[in-house]
Design brief:
The protein contains 22 helices and nine strands. The protein is mainly alpha-helical. The chain has a three-stranded antiparallel beta sheet with strand order 3-9-8. Strands 1-2 form a two-stranded antiparallel ribbon. Strand 6 and strand 7 form a beta hairpin. Helix 11 runs parallel beside helix 14. The longest helix is centred in the N-terminal third of the chain and has 28 residues. The chain is globular, with a radius of gyration of 28 Å. The chain starts with a helix and ends with a helix.
Length: about 625
């Protein structure tokens, strides 16, 4: 199934508007209002394309296109859509604000009890989680960008007042989310002889070398990163002094929430209220690290920088987050590619060290960090080719591109999903779990990111075919009944054996698919990959065509409006056009040169035939 970003995004917008808006007002659904994560995901399904795709812009009503208006007719008319969006966003900000007027980042119903008959208390549902912090960064930046442009397109006093109120609340939430992300970052130092140390050595050593050799390689390969962490102790990173000992192992990344005993951020111009005490263990999760990286990179996007969306405090926080962003990417990329021959990441499925879990989902999350790092440092063809192969294997093992077998255990990857215990959550009551059910959507997202990065024709072709297969799998999983029709997720549509999995409206999966379609649009907007070999052939064709055209011009001229004169002008124009494309689009130049050569040959034959008759 070919990915058609514009049409498929419009389909999602129409379904989302039908489900979530009534006469222009945002309505609550069964899952809304219970989780700041789900509520942010729902709004991003609409706001993210509206701020990232020029054709979908809603902040300049005079330029809103007709098919966009048709898709959003439940949200309002051309002039009503922006104020109604402002009202919906203001409703979100108010809903997720505490009694002390500080933003809240509740995981809500996304938290699960660890016991089958257990319950999650109201206090536990209010706990903040990295998913909410990261999603809030993306939502707040999209909102601020939307307001900045729309403010110049309206003169209505009541709307300008609503814009000012929403901007203040959004800035407050963005700062609080960034502070919470800083306080959720963790560096965990542990001994090589501990259980966690032995598991890490087993993962990166691949069993081919002694533990002592692996430890030496770890120390040598990560020495620069260790030095950067030690140097960063003065910049707010909390870490055990054992990090200075090179015989110690370590991990860095994001815990599931604010770390226990994390210091409050105080060196800002404005007072940041509502910095709750943390309860999470200082244990990095690769899943929450990926989630944090996705949100933090939006702080450095071209749109954020061009529109100047960050204030002075937020710019300071962004630089602090950038340091942690780079440390995490470098660490997990090094671990994923550790060793000389086989990568640990190629040994599926990935085994976590702190929680002793293994799953293809964790392989995908490590691969996602590797993709982040490949983009950052401009990957080599070898790194890219090996990562493409991993994605193909994950798609197969996850039964996204292959058939589910009878009683296939892989079904659990999609329903009920992969669960992780949240270390330290027991401090607030019973231990909580976090469940991930978006394997297919996350896979598609990383495939498209890789395709956007690739400048290798063979690798990109494999990725595009894999993306189309994965998208077809996901598109079939849309709900087709009235409630939530056109949204996700209907597992049984692709996995008939999932008899216990009923229709379940998932804003998480719907938002991920929306992100994928925006990324696919960016991919298609890139220039095609240039083939040096084809460029050389095109130049040779154009050289011969230019020479033959010059020969034709030696012949006696004809009337300016004659057929031969018109043909010569057409040939000259097409040759000029083909020459202008040969460096960027050699295949197109090649295709344009061939009919020109054929036409020149026809002219030469006609001239020869006429000469014989004379």
């Amino acid at each position: 199934m070919q990915i058609k970003p514009r049409q498929h995004l419009l389909d999602i917008w129409q379904a989302m508007a039908r489900h979530s808006f009534d006469d222009g007002k945002l309505v609550r659904g069964d899952t809304d209002g219970l989780s700041s994560v789900a509520d942010a995901e729902r709004l991003l399904c609409l706001l993210y394309p509206a701020t990232e795709v020029p054709a979908f812009r809603l902040d300049q009503p005079d330029t809103t296109e007709r098919d966009v208006l048709r898709a959003l007719d439940r949200v309002g008319s051309r002039l009503e859509i922006p104020p109604n969006l402002i009202a919906a966003l203001t409703q979100f900000m108010r809903t997720h604000t505490g009694t002390d007027d500080s933003p809240t980042f509740s995981g809500g119903h996304y938290f699960r009890p660890s016991e089958p008959d257990g319950t999650v208390t109201h206090e536990q549902r209010q706990l903040g989680v990295v998913d909410s912090y990261s999603m809030s960064v993306t939502l707040c930046l999209a909102t601020l960008g939307f307001l900045k442009v729309y403010e110049g397109a309206t003169t209505r006093p009541e709307v300008l007042k609503a814009i000012a109120e929403l901007r203040e609340a959004t800035n407050s939430r963005l700062t609080a989310a960034m502070v919470s992300l800083l306080r959720s970052f963790a560096v965990n130092v542990f001994d090589a002889e501990s259980e966690q140390g032995k598991r890490l050595i087993q993962v990166i050593g691949q069993g081919g070398q002694s533990d002592r050799i692996v430890l030496q390689q770890f120390s040598r390969r990560l020495r620069p990163l260790r030095a950067t962490i030690i140097e960063s102790l003065s910049r707010g990173i909390q870490v055990d002094e054992g990090i200075r000992d090179e015989s110690q192992l370590f991990e860095c990344g994001w815990a599931w929430g604010i770390v226990k005993d994390a210091p409050r951020i105080t060196d800002l111009n404005a007072d940041v209220s509502g910095q709750p005490d943390g309860i999470a263990d200082r244990l990095p999760y690769v899943y929450f690290t990926v989630v944090a990286l996705d949100g933090i990179q939006d702080l450095f996007s071209d749109r954020t920088l061009t529109l100047g969306l960050l204030d002075e405090d937020q710019q300071k926080l962004a630089e602090m987050l950038r340091l942690r962003w780079e440390l995490s990417q470098q660490y997990w990329s090094a671990i994923a590619r550790f060793g000389g021959e086989r990568w640990p990441l190629e040994d599926l499925p990935w085994q976590t060290t702190g929680l002793r879990l293994e799953s293809e989902y964790f392989s995908l999350t490590v691969a996602a960090i590797l993709v982040h790092d490949l983009v950052r440092r401009k990957a080599t063809d070898d790194d890219l080719t090996r990562t493409v192969a991993i994605m193909e294997r994950l798609a197969d093992r996850g039964r996204v591109t292959s058939r589910m077998t009878r009683n296939d255990p892989t079904l659990r990857l999609h329903t009920p999903g992969v669960t992780m215990p949240l270390a330290g959550s027991e401090r607030a009551g019973g231990q909580l779990l976090w469940r991930m059910t978006d394997f297919s959507a996350q896979l598609l997202k990383r495939i498209i990111q890789l395709a956007e990065l690739s400048r290798n024709i063979g690798a990109q072709d494999r990725l595009l075919r894999l993306a189309e297969q994965s998208f077809e799998h996901l598109w079939k999983r849309r709900i087709d009944e009235e409630e939530g029709a056109g949204l996700w997720d209907n597992i049984q549509a692709v996995y008939p054996d999932a008899r216990d999995a009923g229709l379940r409206l998932s804003w998480s999966i719907t938002e991920r698919v929306t992100e994928c379609l925006v990324a696919a649009r960016i991919l298609y907007e890139q220039e095609p990959i240039r083939s040096p070999e084809l460029a050389e052939f095109a130049r040779e064709l154009l050289s011969e065509a230019t020479h033959l055209f010059g020969r034709e011009q030696l012949e006696a001229s004809t009337a300016a409006d004659g057929s031969r004169a018109r043909a010569m002008r057409s040939i000259e124009s097409r040759l000029d056009h083909a020459r202008s494309l040969v460096d960027e689009r050699p295949a197109t130049a090649f295709a344009l040169a061939l009919p020109v050569l054929q036409e020149l040959d026809t002219l030469a034959q006609a001239r020869g035939a006429a000469a014989q008759e004379v």
